[in-house]
Design goal:
Blueprint (H helix, E strand, L loop, with lengths): L7 E2 L13 E2 L5 E6 L5 E5 L5 E3 H6 L10 H12 L5 H8 L3 H13 L4 H15 L3 H22 L1
Antiparallel strand pairs: 1-2, 3-4, 4-5
Helix pairs in contact: 2-5, 4-6
Length: about 160
C-alpha cells in the first residue's frame, strides 16, 4: 500500500472537473473518508462526491473494484496462462470459482487496447510474480487467444 503522504491522487471520475489532475491529498477538493473492509484508505472528492480508495488508485482501472487482492488474481492468472493449467484445476486448488477466473481473463483481454494497462500488468507480473519476458509473451498469447474466442462468440 502507498503511504498517503506519498500518494499523489486525483479524482477518478471522468466527468469531474478535477479528473486527472495530479494533486496532493492535502488539497481542498480531496478528503480522507474512512477505510475499506480490506483496510485501504478511502477518499471523497468534494467537487463531484465520488468516493474511491487507495487500492483503486494503485490498480488504476484493471481489477480496481475487486475484493480479491490483485496479487492473488495475478498469481492465478500466471498459473492459468503461463503454466497452461486447466481453469477447473486452478479453481479447485485456489478455491476461486471458474466463472471468476474466466472473468479475470476477460477483463485483462478488454484492456489489451490500452498500452498503459498492459504495461502496468507487465510490471506487476515482473515485480510481484517473478515472471520473465518469455513468460510474459506466453501470458499475453493466452489472454489474446481467450479474448479472440470471446469476441467471436459475441458476433
Amino acid at each position: 500500500m502507498l503511504a498517503s503522504s506519498d500518494l499523489a491522487v486525483s479524482c477518478p471520475n471522468e466527468a469531474c472537473v478535477e479528473f486527472g489532475k495530479p494533486l496532493n491529498v492535502r488539497q481542498h477538493f480531496l478528503q480522507k473518508f474512512g477505510f475499506t473492509a480490506a483496510g485501504s484508505q478511502r477518499y471523497v472528492c468534494r467537487a463531484c462526491g465520488k468516493t474511491f480508495s487507495e487500492q483503486m488508485l494503485e490498480d488504476t482501472t484493471l481489477f480496481a473494484k475487486r475484493k480479491i487482492p490483485v496479487d492473488a488474481i495475478m498469481a492465478v492468472m500466471v498459473e492459468v496462462a503461463i503454466s497452461r493449467t486447466p481453469i477447473i484445476q486452478v479453481s479447485r486448488q485456489t478455491g476461486h470459482k471458474q466463472a471468476s477466473i474466466l472473468a479475470w481473463v476477460r477483463e485483462i483481454g478488454e484492456h489489451l487496447e490500452r498500452s498503459d494497462s498492459v504495461e502496468r500488468v507487465n510490471q506487476h507480473l515482473r515485480e510481484k510474480n517473478g515472471v520473465s519476458e518469455e513468460e510474459l509473451q506466453l501470458f499475453w498469447e493466452y489472454v489474446k487467444e481467450k479474448d479472440t474466442k470471446r469476441r467471436a462468440a459475441l458476433k
